[in-house]
Amino acid sequence: MDALIALLLIVFMLVVLGSGLWIGLSLLGVAVVAMQFFTERPVGDAMVLTIWGSTTSWTLTALPLFLWMGEILFRSKLAEGMFRGLAPWLNRLPGRLLHVNVIGCTIFAAVSGSSAATCATIGKITLPELDKRGYPERLSVGTLSGAATLGLLIPPSIIMIVYGVAANVSIAKLFMAGVIPGILLALLFMGYIVFWALRNPEQIPAGDAELTFRQKLYEGRHLLPVVALIALVLGSIYSGLATATEAAALGVAGSLALSAIEGSLSRQSLLDGLSSAARVYCMIGLILAGASFLTLSMGFIGLPRHLAEFIGGLGLSPFALMVMLVMFFIVLGCFLDGISMVVLTMAVLLPTVEAAGFDLIWFGIFIVLVVEMAQITPPVGFNLFVIQGLTKREITWIARVSMPLFWLMCAFVLFVYLVPGTVTWLPGLMQ
């Protein structure tokens, strides 16, 4: 009977989501139906208390602040300066300026916290430049699509904040746990570009005129503002001087100061950044509210317990459980965005994950990696939509040229499972 109820609710949810209704309202509607018809708990007070509790968490305050910081930087000239600072150093590396996609996304991810913002900001700068210089479009677009997912992994990450709230783990430790995997994944993407360039040297345009070391250093000055902002945000967290929320406030103050110094801060850009960050946060807040009430209603029905018992009864090894979760999230990513995936599934999966012996900090990074993969899987791969807006190419073509990066991420998930110390070492050093 419980299995039938669960199946009916899942079908109902897919129908509502497919209707085009906002995700947050869809989740809320399914939760109301589940609570009203399949439990004896009154709907009204349960909904009010749950939504209030999920949206008034102090930890969640970091989320709108990091969103605002990303919006400020999105409207500044810092990303353009980043291209100018990086280009001279990549002239001799196989693939040359294609690496700007990866390095630019890595750097910008460390101050934006959003995959879509990273993709849009870096893509607006690099894609026209690479096209003008004659680099193959399929590789320019593919590497941008994959590298932009680093916006979720390299701290500060919006999805890590959501996971930290849902799983009740330290967001500061989650941020630190993402540093080494983020750098390693960026190096893996760069390795792919080197490999491709060595196999297809005729498709890589000739480099620019070689600069002297002093000239390279002079051009590198454009990187200093972004590096200083990264040091301010992550340094304050790692040193213990600030919590994640306080570091987010420092990041906003730093980005406003840099924007003012370079002359891109105006009353209009400030208002645009505020309104854009507010819109995105309201969307996320509505999803969190709907998902938290859906989680409560599922708990009253007993679905999480039954699912945990079912998975536990399969007798899966930790590795088999990890493989099953990867496939589960990739399929889920075809229909839901990353934040919805996390808030919808954590209450159900965490008991099973803890029973299997997985560290919750490690599992948070694992979830982020798998959600990253979902960012470039159609039909709801957010990065694919962003790049489609930039290039006007078909979504199927963009997904196809992004597939090599997808398989690299699959291999990296396996590496993180086999070498968990890459995730747990740095947060283990924090006091």
Question: Short summary of the structure?
Answer:
This protein is mostly helical and about 425 residues long. The chain is about 75% helix and about 0% strand.
Number of strands: 0
Separation of the first and last Cα atoms: 49 Å
What is the succession of H and E elements?
A: HHHHHHHHHHHHHHHHHHHHHHH
- Average per-residue pLDDT, rounded, comes to 80
Question: Could you characterize the architecture of this molecule?
Answer:
The structure is a single chain. It is built from 23 helices and no strands. The chain is mainly α. The model has no long low-confidence stretch (mean pLDDT 80).
Layout of SSEs?
Layout: H1 2-18, H2 23-38, H3 43-55, H4 62-74, H5 78-86, H6 99-112, H7 115-132, H8 137-147, H9 150-153, H10 158-167, H11 171-177, H12 179-199, H13 213-219, H14 224-238, H15 244-262, H16 267-301, H17 303-313, H18 318-332, H19 338-355, H20 360-374, H21 382-391, H22 395-418, H23 421-429
Helix pairs in contact: 1-2, 2-16, 3-16, 4-15, 4-16, 5-6, 6-7, 6-8, 6-12, 6-14, 7-8, 7-21, 8-22, 10-19, 10-20, 11-23, 12-22, 14-15, 16-19, 17-19, 18-20, 19-20, 20-22
Characteristics:
single chain, 431 residues, mainly alpha, 23 helices
